Amino acid sequence: MKIEGRTFIVSGGASGLGRACVDDICSRGGYAAILDMNEELAEEAVRGIGGGKAKFFEANVLETESIASAVKGALAWVKETGKEVGGVIAAAGVSTPAKIIDRNLNPFSLDDFDFVMNVNVRGTIDLVRQVVPHMAASTPADKDGERGIIVMVSSSAAFDGQPGQVAYAASKGAIRSLTLPLTRDLARYGIRVVTVAPSIFDSRMTAMMSDKVRASLTRVMEFPLRPGQPHEFAQLVTQSIENIMLNGVVLRLDGGMRMPSKM
Ligand SMILES: NC(=O)c1ccc[n+]([C@@H]2O[C@H](COP(=O)([O-])OP(=O)(O)OC[C@H]3O[C@@H](n4cnc5c(N)ncnc54)[C@H](O)[C@@H]3O)[C@@H](O)[C@H]2O)c1
């Protein structure tokens, strides 16, 4: 599908991997509705992109009503611009590391577990379920019958989760597992589904890693011996949007890296 002249709804579009997708889409003649909690970063992105190509809609993906009002706003903007919705890029996500029991043998907090699952899984699916009715009904199909794409973000943790990643791995494993049934549900509407599973990419999420953790991860990298860059993530998302044969797949984007158990 062509990016030009289409609007993409990008959760987590204010920062990191989502922001890189917003930049790439807008540089190719597309439009981006940024759904995020971080107004400051989102408005900075909108200003940086300019030309009315990107617009911010405040949303907390933990709350159905918040998603609903952001989606309503984004669809009103689409009506104004006439650039129909080409897809959703669900990049909002959190990681709250905790081992199942701590040094004093206290079990980890279920509130923290629920938080990670609710942002990463429920928040992703809630956004998708609120946008696809519009895409199925209103986005015109091209000659192949294609209407659009859902891009979701999993992680290397879905395959080789590290110590302290029970919650995060559960959430990213869920995204990995639901990719195929979601593809099958949406196929009849000409909507494809692609999930990208990155390893370590530079972003605000990974900026909080200590130098020690960073160095030990670099030691187990295959090639290249550096974290991925957000624009390299965006490149794969752009290819996923443009290549109609990519569907129902989880693409590892990890330079061959497998996450170790010990750091
Ligand atoms: N950076 C990595 O190494 C890496 C690796 C694998 C997977 N991922 C995944 O990529 C996605 C993007 O992460 P990133 O590295 O760009 O992190 P980031 O922190 O730079 O960006 C995440 C964005 O999501 C937004 N967000 C968080 N919670 C939200 C909520 N409840 N409602 C709305 N917006 C919310 C944040 O405000 C932020 O703008 C996440 O799903 C993350 O799990 C990242």
Automatic annotation (TrEMBL):
The gene is Hsd17b10. Transmembrane segments: none annotated. The keyword Oxidoreductase applies. The keyword Iron does not apply. InterPro entries: NAD(P)-bd_dom_sf (IPR036291), SDR_fam (IPR002347). It comes from the Eukaryota. This is 3-hydroxyacyl-CoA dehydrogenase type-2. Keywords: Oxidoreductase. PANTHER family: 17-BETA-HYDROXYSTEROID DEHYDROGENASE 14-RELATED, SHORT-CHAIN DEHYDROGENASE/REDUCTASE. It comes from Lachnellula suecica. GO terms for molecular function: oxidoreductase activity.
